[in-house]
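Protocol step 4 of 5: obtain the predicted structure for the target chain.
Materials: sequence only (see below). No template structures provided, no constraints applied. The aim of this step is simply to have a reference model before the mutagenesis design in step 5. Sequence pasted as it appears in the construct record:
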Amino acid sequence: MRLSRYFMPTLKEDPKEAQIASHRLMLRAGMIQQSSAGIYSWLPLGQKVLKNIENIVRDEQNKAGALEILMPTIQPAELWRESNRYDDYGKEMLRITDRHDREMLYGPTNEEQVTDIFRSNVRSYKDLPLNLYHIQWKFRDEVRPRFGVMRGREFLMKDAYSFDLDYEGAKIAYNRMFVAYLKTYARLGLQAIPLRADTGPIGGDLSHEFIILADTGESEVFYHKDVLNLQTPEDRDYSPEELQGIVDTWTSLYAAADEMHDPDNCPISGDELVTRRGIEVGHIFHFGQKYSAAMGANVTGPDGKDVTVSMGSYGIGVSRLVGGIIEACHDENGIVWPEEVAPFQVGLINLKSGDEACDAACEDLYAKLNAAEVEVLYDDTSDRAGAKFANMDLIGLPWQFSVGPRGVKNGVVEVKNRKTGEKEELSPEAALAKLIG
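Step 4 output (structure tokens):
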């Protein structure tokens, strides 16, 4: 993509309304534009990152055996009355009446909708286990939307819902999602820590939230120092026993957010206990028969009798992850994207646009990068070199290739690693091989 033909309205100054790094940098990098309080338009650069994250999340859900559907954003109020949540949910739910005076709502979550799909179509235990997921926009009317996409009113979320015959089956589904989440965050270039979460009035012991460490995180996190040394599960299928073993390993070390941490009864202390701040980027939860019982989601069991299915839900904030990754991956010059989610892999900088030799060298390298299917953003504008460097640092592409008159004369390209800041001069062929080798 040529920058001269791209829509990327960057800002030189920090927006006054932005309080945290991700909000500030997303606005400055031209990734988003506020439409109204807590609601944003996603511009080309932001949309590419959002889609990259979405595709990784989708791939890992598919590998875990979940089946993708797409449920509507607008739901009938009658479904929520069946589960007794319509009146209890509060003002965060946007309630709507259509032209026929039917009560509707903009869905903040989808337990009722997916339970209705299940009960309308599944009759036998032979159709279990089943896990349905979608990636869809949701709306919660936050009283104080702030921090950009980190706490907006409209957000993109992956939510999956499992259906099993009994608790034992539900636990296998839960463990499978636990492992899928570990793999997902690793692919996103993140170190995620699962924390035991409060299950609230439903009870039970199956609830974990996943956090990534960031100095600007909303929660204080306490964990055993060895948690960060645990190995991400391999990319393969696991038996139920292997899944349980992985979960046991990851939950055997202490990790708790501030609301679950009791300093007087913490099993570890001293050098073993690390305190950082973290951002929640996912939550998995087993809620048993809370919705299936209320809404009549039953199947015929092996003995011919009706069984109320056991359910779980599994959420990942896809749009929230964009902000979360930036909070964890930035420096004083801008964003530092992990390669897996970066909008482009490399920024090609023409240091003297209009110079015949520079233009020819850049066009040749640009063509070769495209032929090798390397996503490249080519700065072919007439801006000053300093402005071009600053812009590339701001948007955080993993690699920068700079081509100037001196380099062309010497047959080299300056290659910069955005994360480390390391620079080296390589031939165009060697520079290309560095990305595709």
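Step 4 remarks: The first helix runs from residue 21 to 28. DSSP finds twelve helices and 23 strands in the chain.
Proceed to step 5.
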